[in-house]
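Quick one: co-fold with 2-oxoglutaric acid.
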Amino acid sequence: MGSEVTLKLPVIDFTSIELKGNNPNWEEVKSQVHKALVEYGCFEANFGKVPLDLRKDIFGALHDLFDLPLQTKILNVSKKPYHGYVGQYPMVPLFESMGIDDAAIYDKVESMTNILWPNGNPSFRHLSELDQIVRKMVLESLGVEKYLEEHMNSTNYLLRVMKYKGPQTSDTKLGLSAHTDKNIVTILCQNQVEGLEVLTKDGKWTSYKPSPESFVVMIGDSLHCPSVLLKRELFQSREISRSANVIYSNYYLHECLQAWSNGRLHSPFHRVMMRGNEARYSAGLFSIPKGGVMIKAPEELVDEEHPLLFKPFDHVEFLKYYYTEKGQKDPSAMRTYCGV
Ligand SMILES: O=C(O)CCC(=O)C(=O)O
Ligand SMILES: [Fe+2]
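Sure, here it is.
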């Protein structure tokens, strides 16, 4: 079992950065982003654009949303796995989540936010700007910025909101099983209740101390360019036990490398561990490859030293495999599905 340490994630200040602006600090912040993603696969971002009172409103609204009767919550269905209401899993009984399907760029995310916040809450639009800044910096760091426009146009957003009940005991209980995200970039925003833990490359669970202003930015398995897969993963798993369609591994040592022309990004395992009585609410903005777009490594990133690792694949089709019983048990689902 990995022992938990309190190690701080790198903190990166984006308050002076705009997607379309004159950014004297761009190069400096970009190199911090690259370094953090190589080492941890995630970082804490200070972005400054989402005022504290809006964040408070978000968690108040989530409290009310999850307080609805179960019959009402399960009306939020989706054909895609993990996009509608998720909850009542025996292995993670504290966890519930609701997603907004196909949150195509801003509009549908806003339709969700309009339901929750009829008077407007621009938070998620701001978070999609942060997502795009990070992806632009990543592509530039890899020297493949010529794919930027295509890359941006080949993705959707999914907004998912989560509740983890407090276990109401003195024990620590699993809130969400260890996993890597399967999308491109995840931005997490949460209330003050601790619980998120990230596995470092040397196998230590690191707890995240939430701060009222910051977000966690995390790399998913399929950071991709248009027709471009930038991902290399080499898993070594030890001791994987699981049940009921959910990865249930408290210690899941892996190497998940992305070896690119000029760097390696890491998509980290993470989980939620709950203590005490208070509920933890979080919201995640997930950028995901659109269905129907074939993901294929760019020729610039394939050479003798870095041979092609994955056959071109459609991410939505991949998810259909990932969410089967076999896929859920597979520590290197992407390799099984489309490895060369
Ligand atoms: O609640 C959190 O902070 C983490 C959620 C998460 O890891 C996920 O939804 O993929
Ligand atoms: Fe996650």
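If it helps, The longest strand covers residues 155-164.
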